[in-house]
Structure formats: C-alpha cells, structure tokens
Records
---
Amino acid sequence: MRALIRTRHRAETPRPDPAPSRLAYRLNRLWLSPLVRRLVKQVLPVGLTVAALAVWGTHPAQVERLTGWAEGLRASIEARPEFQVKQMAVTGASPVLADAIRDRLDLDFPVSWFDLDPEAIRADLVRLDAVADVAVALELGGALRVDVTQREPAVVWRRVSGLELLDGTGHRVAFIDRRDGRADLPLVTGTGADRAVPEALALMDAAAPLGDRVVGLTRQGARRWDVVLRDGPVIQLPETGARAALERVLGMDAAMDLLARDIRMVDLRNPARPTLRLGPDAVEYLVTTRAFTEGLRQR
Amino acid sequence: MIELFETQRAMRQMRRAAMQRGLVGIVDLGTSKVTCLVLRFDGDAMPAAEGVGSMAGQAQFRVIGAATTRARGMRHGEIEVMQETERAVRTVVQAAQKMAQERIDHAIVSFSGAAPRSYGLTGEIDLGGREVTEADVAAVLASCDTPDIGPGRTVLHAQPVNFALDYRSGLSDPRGQVGNALTADMHMVSVDQSVVQNILHCIRRSDLELAGLASSAYAAGVSAMVEDEQKIGAACIDMGAGTTGLSIFLRGHMIYADTVRIGGVHVTQDISKGLGIPLTLAERIKTLHGGLMATGRDDRDMIALTAETGDWEHDRREISRSELIGIMRPRVEEILEEVRARLEAAGFDDLPSQKIVLTGGGSQVPGLAGLAARILGQQVRLGRPLRVQGLPQAATGPAFSAAVGLALFAAHPQDECWDFDLGRHRYPARSLRRAFKWFRENW
C-alpha cells in the first residue's frame, strides 16, 4: 500500500543521481588548480591579515594608543632601579675642573641608563680646554664614571686680551688674571707664540744657566724668538737652529761676560754674522776710544 | 589519403601533448555507467624487482583517481540527452579529481556506440631496391587508397597492421630493409561523425579538452586479452549494457571491430516486461539472482518480487530462479548469436587461433562461459582487465575493461608510424600550384 505518512527513513534517502551544478563543478576545478589554491590558502590570508592590521593600526586613535602604550612600556623599563644611574664619579681632574664638568653635564640624578649616551658626553667634555682626554663609562651599580686626563700648563702667554695658560703642545688650558698666579711658568708673548710652544720650552731649557734673568720669550713675526733678559740685551734668535744660537750666546757670555755689558741687542738672526747693538754709553766710549786710537796712529 | 595521414597525426600529437603535462583523464562513456580514471605519467617506469618485465607498458603511469557513476542520457553507447550525460561526466570527473587531488585538463574518451565499421586498406609504393626509410613508411601509409566510408562518417582508428616487402609479408617494422615494393596493410575504423561531435561537445561543456578518442571495443580488447592472445589472434567480446562490442586482434594489432547493438540493458528490459516489475528491481534481480544455466536446484530458489503498487497480491509475488533464467537466456543467446554472425562475416574462422575472451559488465552472469562455449566455440574464457598500478579494487572487475584498456591505449597507442615525416615530394603538386596562383592573383 502506498504509505500515507512520509516516514523519516524515506525523507533521508538521497536524491537519485546527484550531480554537481555547472557552477559547483567549475568552482571545484578552480579550487583544484594549484595557483588558485596557493593564492587562497597562503597569499590571501596573509594579505587579509596585513590589510586588516594596516587599517586598524593606521587609525589615529589606535596610533595614539599604540604609541602611548609603547612609551609607557619604555618608561616603565627605564624607570626600573636596575637601570638607574645615581651618581657620577669624576677622577683625575682638579676640583675646579670637576666642578666645571659637573656644571657642563648638568645631570639631575637619578638618571635612567637609556638617557645617557657615553659617546656624546665624551665628545662634549673633550671640548673643554683643560681636558686632554676623557673616558666615560656607565658602570653596573648605577654610576657614571668620568676619567679625565688634564692638560698640564707649561707656559703663560701674554696677549693683548689677557693672560692664558698653554700646555706643552700650545693648546690653551685656562685664562688667568695675574702673571703672579703661575710665577713658576715661563712667559711667552707675541702673535703665534702658541704654535711654537715646544720650541719655546726647549729654549727655556737651554736658557736655564741664565736663571731668573730671563723675563720671557717674545715671538717675532710669528716666525722666530727673542729672548728678553732683565737688565740685559735682547737676544734675537734665528728661525732655525734657535737653540744652538742661544747656546752660542751663552758660550760667548761665559767667555767674555757678554750679557753683563752695555749691549742693547745680540743679533743672531744670521748665525754666520753675529751682530751686537751697543748701548749709548758704550757707543760714546767706543767713539772716544776709536778717536783716541786714530789720533795715536796719526800721530 | 593525405588527409587521413594528417588527421591521425594531429590526433597523436594532441594525445602526446596531453601526456607531456603528466596528468590525463580517462573517461569511459558507457551506456549504464561512466568511469573516470586520473592517470599520472611520471616517466620513471621500471619496477625495481628482478624478473618483472615492462608490464606491457602500463608501468609508465599510475592511476591516482578513479570514480564511476551511473550513466544518464546514454543509449546504445551514444549520447541521447546531452544535459544528462554532461551531468554524469561532471559528477564522475569531479569525484575522480577529488580522489586524485589534482585537476585534469585533458580527457581521453572511449565510447561504444556510433556503429563502428572496419575497413582493410592496402597501399603500395615502388622502392627501386633502396633501403626503406621513415619517409617511405610514411609514404606507403599515405598511399593507401581510402574507401568510400559514406557521408557523415569519420575515421576513428587507422593503424598499420602489416608491412610486406616484395614477397615477404608479416613485417612489423620494415625500416632499414632493402626491397623493391613496399606494401602496407592498414586497419581503419569509421564511426558516425555526429556521435563523435556530440561527445566532443559534451567534453567541452565539462571544461575538458579532448585529447583522444577510442572505440571501447578496442580498449576492452587491449586490457582484457593477454599479450599472447593479441599476438596469436583472438576476439574480445565486450558485453556492455547497451552494446556488445567485439574486436579481433592479430599480431598485436586490432584487425576488426564491430558492435552489436544489444546488451545487458535489454536483458533487464526483458525481465521488467516479462515479470511486470520496475526496471530498478529487474536490474537488481538480474545482478543478484541472474544466471544462464538452469539446474534442478533453481526451481526451488524463490525470488521475492516486491512492489509498491498497492495491490497486495501483485506486491507479494515470488518467482523461481529458473523462471528468471528462462527470461534471460534467450536474450543472451541472441547477443551471442549475433556476435557469432559478425565474427563469421569478418572471417574469424580463418584465423590461426579461435580464442574468444568475454569481458564487460554483462560477462559476469553466472553460466555465461558455458553458454558462450556452445555458441561461439570451445576456446572461450572470461577476461578481466589487466592490473594497473594504483587501480582501486572496486575497479578491477570485468566491467572496467574498457576504462583500463583506454588507459593502456593512452600509454601505448601503437601509432608511432604517424610520426614519420612524409617526404616533401609527396605533397601533390596541384595544391602548390594553386597556392602559387592565389599569390599571383592577390598580391
């Protein structure tokens, strides 16, 4: 008998001869082609993810939130006690220089490790006149260590503008107010004196037998030295071989007591022809003596 | 004959181009079922084990996808309702692709209908005592005189079967031999052009490209017969649903193909009409209880005929198995008689060997071997398709002979001869002259 009530069993029997529709068939084939497959399974998800992130991330509110979050994170890391620098140790510098360094860096401790750049600090400190070299290091335990090598002043240079201390290479170390402040250092004057400090030091060394008669050295025309003596002549030295010339003068002095006489100037600019300029009394004496000897000869 | 040469060559090149890509689909369009196999050609062939031969060439490929479904809209191996057939092809191709996880773009198709007709062709050229070259082989193939195959017919297969050099016949490859006259025997199968065009259209509608066509009678013979049978001479009878194809092989080549347009569907129809039951039930009874040789036991084997007509008496009938055999046997006998008539007409009796191989879905009826032996002669055996690599167990039955044979045909098409270049001088001078004239007039 034909069943009047549709049974469950019959409802579940599959449709006879199922076949994919043209569209389903084509899509299935498309899906099986390797290129499309790779596109959908690899390129598309990555592309979509990137695009979604880009859209989400470029929204101003999100940018702000992200940057705020990043900075908060950074700040929280920087603020950790392990990364705090609490003090600065300056070694090898005089108290004045150490104070100058502290003033110059102007650090408000504690400072985070990440805010300090040792290279930049070093480059800054090297520009100080009194500093020859400096090593800056951040040490574990929260200390900024500054090892300073100071410039040692070697001469005092008197200029029109004032007095300066120069080191052995001619680099300025400091300005000073009074010559008496560093009476132990030799005095040099003249334009370009700083560029010939080593030679000046050598000359001062050679002039040691003169003791404190040496007032100082004067650079003439930025090319040669004059030795200025107290109560004595000015010794003009040549551009080259200045030390030998000076020693020669000292030899003459030892032999003939040259520097104690009434001589205004000992000119050794041409070493082959030493020249003396006499004082007025000496000239008069010389004229008198010469006239006397002339008279004797005429007579 | 030049035209035949060119078309065969084009078909061969099409198939080779498809195989170059490594993946080919095999579609066997039958009357009751459509089978699709996906073949992967990967070149490295030889199995490493010792003592294993080249496996008749099928080691070149591997079946990576197989599917079969009920055919719809087919009748006598020809497309009757295009949309339905197309749906069946889509279903089966999609299922096979799903199994293979690969997309197929080329399909080699076999079909059983279209009234194949065999022709024997002969061609001869004069060599003048030279050595036979490839161009000579091509020339002798091109010189075969084409018979009038009739309007609306087209050539499906054309294969050189035999070469003869002077008085020496039976050469399979005459190249390099010296002689005066080279003769070629060619076997040609023609089919209805409209059927082929329908199949072409159907395949194209399924977004596939047709890479080759074969008659299923030929394909079944390739897979169901062992190599010796093909060499010595044997007939393969492919008992399909709508048609029964027969092909005769000799020396490894098909020399005759024909179809009888009766098949298993007609047996089912007989049962349906004789017992007054629906076709589906008739098919079920046929496959479950069918037979051809009645015994005393069969009188007591009762088969219930269920129906849903509402008539209690009608819905509760029973028949004995011998009744069923009584319905089936005359039809099967008719098929076999018809086959015998065709074989006789083809001169099968003159062949050195009278071996007959029965295959196809219809050959699974119990008792067929005995019945066929009475009608066709004693040398009858049931054939199953050759085992190929990767073929699912479900597709190893005799119903899949044509599909497997088509796969073997794709791997070993036996038509290398069409690759030989025809010497340039063989082109007819008239067409050259015409081309020259055209240039002069239009330039």
---
Amino acid sequence: MKELEYPFDGEWILSKKKSIKKQLLQENGPFLQKKIAVLGGSTTSNICVLLDLFLLNQGIQASFYESEYAQYYADAMFDNPELMEFHPDLIFIHTSNVNVKHYPSIQDSDDEVTAKLDLTYQEFEGMWEHLNATHHCPIIQNNMELPSYRLLGNYDCVDVRGRVSFLNRLNERFAEYARSHDFFHIHDIAYLSAVVGLDRFSDPFYWHMYKYAVGVPVMADFCYNLSHIIKAIYGKNKKAFVLDLDNTLWGGIVGDDGPENLEVGQETSMGQAYDAFQTYLKAHKDIGILLNVNSKNEAENALAGLSHQDCVLKPDDFMVIKANWEPKNLNTAAIAEELNLGVDSFVFVDDNPAEREIISSTIKGISVPEITTVDKYIREIDRHGYFEVLKLSKDDLSRNEMYKANLQRAQTMKSFADYGEYLKSLEMKGVIKPFEPLYEARIAQLTNKSNQFNLTTKRYSQSEIEEAASTRFTFYGKLSDKFGDNGVVTVAIGRPEGDALHMELWLMSCRVLKRDMELALLDAIVHRCKANGITRIIGYYYPTAKNAMVKSFYETLGFDKLSEDAEGNSTWEFRIPECYENQNKYIEVTED
Amino acid sequence: MTREEAYEKLNKVFQEVFDDEEITVNDATTANDIEDWDSLEHVNLIVAVEKCFGIKFNIGEVTSMKKVGDMMDLILAKTA
C-alpha cells in the first residue's frame, strides 16, 4: 500500500489506522504469523498499532505482547509468566534516553563517569543475555537518541560528563555488542531522530502528557524504520534493482542527444547529481544487490551511454541489460527469470511516472519508489530500507560474482544437447557436513530467506540452529564448479526417533536448481542414517504460497506418500534399502 | 467558521479515529459516551483534531478539556 511507504503522512496513518488495517488484511495475505514482545521503557500502545500496519504491509501478521508501563527491565529479568507463556518469536526493547538512570554529574571524575557508563551498559547487557538464554529469539534494541538539551552547549559532546558525550559512548557500546552477537539488532533511533528532527522526536508535550518518549506525530517514522529490521529478519528484503537509463541514470536521452551530450560527471551540477546517484547504486553491488537495466532504447545506444567515460556504472556492473522496445513489465519478468528470482524481490527505478504505474499495477509485490528529481533520488530510495542489512556475510559480498557465474552456466547449457553432459562439464564439487559454527549465521539466514525450494518453510533463529546442531541430524551443503563457488546452498535438519529420521527442514537455494545437489543431499542423509541404525526417512511437505515447486519432491526421490490432509500437507516415507545406490552422479562430494 | 461548521469537521475526525460512522458529538459529549475513548486513544484524537484544524493545543489546554464543548471552544478561538 503506497500510503505506508516513504514519503508517508504519519498523522494521517494514525487517524485512519483502523480502516487501513481492515484494507491490509483483505488485500495483503497470506501472512507470515509472528509473535512480537514489546518491552517498553515508556508508553508503547501506538507503537504496536503502527508497527502492526507496517508489518502487515510487508506480509507479516504480528500478535503483540506489551509489558506494563515502563516494566521492560522487570519483564526481561524476572520472567514474567505472561511473557513466558507468550513464547515470543522476536523481542523489541523500546527504551530511550528517559530510561538512563545514571547520568554523570558535573562533580564526577573521569573514572566515576566511566563507572556510570559501565553500570548503565551492564544493566542492558544483562537483560539481553538473559532474554537470549530464556527465549532464543532475535532481539531488537533501540539505541539512544541525543538529549533534548545541552547543559554545556556544544562542549556537551566533548566533556565526558556531558550527556551528549555519555550517550554517544553508550551507543558505541551497544553497537559493539551487536557486532559480536547475531541474535541482537540495533534500532538506530539516534539516526532516525536526526532525520525527523530531535525536537519533533523528543517532544516533551507527549512525554509529560502521555509518557510517550517518541513524539506521536513521528511515531509512524519510528515504526516504519523498525519494521525494516523485522521484515529483513523474516527474509523480506529486496535483492535487486531494475533501472531505467534516460533521465534516471543520466540527464538526457542517449538515442536523441548522443552519448557525448549526456549530463553525467563533474562538469555540471546536474551531471554531479547523476554521478552521486550512480555512485550510490554502485555501492549496492558491494553488499550483494544485483543491478539490472530495463530501458526503452536501442541496445547499442544503451551500451554507448553506459560506456560514457564519466559514467560510474559500466556495462559490466549489471547482471542483465534489457534495452529494447518491449513493455517494461515483460522485460522485468524476463530479468527475474534469468536471475531465478521472484519479481517481488525487485526495486524498479524509473523517472517516468507512467512506466512506474504500469509496473506497480501489473507486478504484485515489486517495489516502485516515487522518485522526483535526481538530487532527491538517493533519499527517495534509501528511506525505504529495501536492503536492510542484518549482518554482512561473505556470501553477500560475493553474490554478484555468483550470479554472473550462473548466467555463464546458462550460456554453457545452451551449447550442450544432453543435460547430463552439461552437468558433467561443470566439474561440480560439493561438501555436505553437519552444521559448523562458522556457517550457522548463513544457515539461519537461508532458513529465513528460502521460500521456493523449502519443504516445511520452518524458520530458525541462529540460536535455534545452534541447538539443532546438538540435538538433531543436521546437514549443510556447499557447491562449487568451474565457474565459481556458490557457498552454502542447501540445509536439512532431521529428528531421529526410533528407527526413523523425521525431516523437519529441507531447503535449497534456487540458484542451484537442477544441479542434482538434492540427490547428493539424499545420499548423505541415507549414509548418516545407515551409520546410526536408522532405516526409514520421513518427509513432510507443507504447502505455502511459494513452495509449489517441491510439491512432488519426495515422490521424485522415490518416497511413498503416507498421508495428505485437506490443506495439502503431506507425509512421505522412504525405506532405506539394504544396498543403497547413490543417486548423485555428477557432483564429487566430500562428506563428513 | 461557525460552531455548526466546526462540528461537522469534528464529527468526521471522531468517526475516523474511532472507526464508527455513526458517531456524532456535541458540547456535552465526554469520554464516557464513546466506548473506545480511553486515555491512549485520547492522544490520537488530539493529534487528529490538531491536524484537521491546523492548530496546536498546549499542555494546559489538553488537561483542562472535560467535555467536547471545551475542545470546541478552543478550536474556535484558535481558528478565529
């Protein structure tokens, strides 16, 4: 719903919240169900109301637990039975600088200030540790907004006794913890309050009247920003840009004006603005976002424009370049297919409102930011939080190379008449092993991101992955070939019970579809079962809106269907034969 | 703006905030007359009224409102 995307009218949303919610529930399903505990250091009622709307807009239906007014610490530390019974999937600690109890006084020595900093920090850390040990779920913690007044004026950020200095140091400690704990995420209200204006953010009217630490008129901005982290945790980040060229990446029309007359580069103000925008886009490559072109142009003109010496973006920076006269929605669908991504993982950027309208009205789930003029493009895209990063994995950093290699594989495939010959030519090497700490973050990420090749769509936090590693049969698989390393691409978890292994999770990244990695994994599962005296493998398929491709997966592997209910949930059995012959023929696998 | 005209606008605000198209308010209406009107919803009502009429209430004004008539007096004074 456009009204819930940047730039929105927060007060309007608040006044219409009930009718908006009805509309979202009707239009946006099916929803992922999540239980969110909000532990507040100030009033939280509007936060739950607004966060609910932004999450519904992302396809997440939350139920909320709210602590009693300002009882965040007691709830966290003393295991409020109500909270325990709630079994949260996620905990949000809504504290702010009104909850800091040990501010320095002007008489304090440096050491005393440091002691107060430690004390303040340790109360928080103790809470995070306890919550993690008790609930094993992601925790989101506000950092601190700057104080609303400065006793020492500008010197408040210099002197350690100044509150500005104190809160800055505290925020750095929070960030330090987040760097080393994957379950823990910072909601950066220090940044957010600067964006909306600290005077509006910390409006004392709402604090004294209603004990709201965040001004009600900017509460929507707050919840929007918070919703970005939550949707990222549940795998709803965007993955790729689809970009127009003329008047989007440069000023002018390359076909009419000629590449030499485009506005881009350092010569003019307009050119500089396009340069800044291209630089912004190019930086996304480094965090694993895929860039693509979708432009109404002759192909050679598009390439001539991109080869302009002042263009920051070069033809090589893009995965797929579609420069033709096809309708843009068809081009977008074609790009999605080539990259093996859902169209809903794209952000479509085009200066032409008519093109934007066609895309947003024909492609469900795609994001189409309303951009206005080039000097504002960056902000108009950035504020959406499309690519909210929870942690930068090695995979993110090399994703562009992996997709490039995939495109090359597709090219190679065309040159083989026999698919087996093609697979052989890839010289694939696989590793299949039980979970190892090094890969647990990536494994958790995969369980939350994989929707299509996912039999049970069970989501795991990293701590749950760690737990599974010690109580279950676990498998992760890596696959590489002559074009490159795909990293961890498949994960399975089985619960041994008597003579059977119950497959609680089996997923695979779509970028290695049809490479026989699933057969290699079956082989590994069978070997582990045999080594442990297990004779049957029980598979489960739970249908979702996105996993129809694996509906008959177990059947293909030779499992027998035991049962199926009205919703299509099915159970399958594989009796391991005495002499099991490996199914995988093309991947050279190292097993543990 | 006459008191009647202002009430027309104000009714719309109440209807939106409490999501009930049947609601009409008058000078004598209080929080007891509207089911969902608790202290948490009160803040949202104030914000919506401020936005609708392009005005701001201060802390003393908000605390002194006992019934809708008091709110209306302030709206008219501030928009005059």
